[in-house]
Amino acid sequence: MTLFWLLVLAHLVGDFPLQTDTIFFYKNKYKWGILLHVSICAVMNVVFTVPYLKYPSFWGVLFLLFISHVFYDSGKIWFAGNIIKDSV
């Protein structure tokens, strides 16, 4: 399986079955909830890509995925709370 598909699979596992209702609540209510959720996804990235962990530059890729996931989810929550709610 290619690296791309391993990362997609890790994302799907971390974002759906491992995001419980409690984590979803914390993610939407507290900033640390986003970090909890993204950390779970990051652990899944590490678990699914073990053969690539021997490359030091790959850790940079995982870090960029972590940061981009934080910004994406933060923006999504802000957008849903401010833009969509105001337009209804």
Provide structural commentary:
The chain is mainly alpha-helical and 88 residues long. It has a domain at 23-80. 82% of the residues lie in helices and 0% in strands. The protein has helices at 3-15, 21-29, 31-48, 56-87. Helix 3 (31-48) packs antiparallel against helix 4 (56-87). The longest helix has 32 residues, at 56-87. The chain is elongated and about 45 Å long. The relative contact order is 0.13. The model has no long low-confidence stretch (mean pLDDT 93).
Brief account:
The protein is 82% helix and 0% strand.
Strand and helix map with partners:
Blueprint: H1 3-15, H2 21-29, H3 31-48, H4 56-87
Share in helix: over 70%
Terminal CA distance: 44 Å
Number of strands: 0
* Mean pLDDT over the residues: 93
Structural class: mainly alpha
**SSE order in H/E notation?**
HHHH
**Largest sheet, described in full?**
none
Low-pLDDT parts are none
